[in-house]
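SAMPLE LOG
Freezer: B-3
Tube label: C17
Construct: single chain, 93 aa
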Amino acid sequence: MKDLFRLSRYHWLFLFLVMAFCAFATAFLSFQLINIAMANLELIATHGLMGIVDGGLLQFLSIVTKGLLIVTLYFCFKGMEAELLQRWRRIDR
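STRUCTURE (predicted):
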């Protein structure tokens, strides 16, 4: 399992494609998260406690979960970026 996370064993094209997917997913989920958060705030502001009981709390937990997924994807992107830049700098020597 340890060997799975060692990025130096993967081909650069695979790392680049995974990095691109992480960047796309981060951007898409971030945009979607803003829309959902605005709708959740409007629901709670309009209906108060009844809005929380009717699904506002569940939607808030969904927003937090998506936020954690976005952070994970961003860290994945930065890890791939760092590995690819390190390889690129080694080529110039």
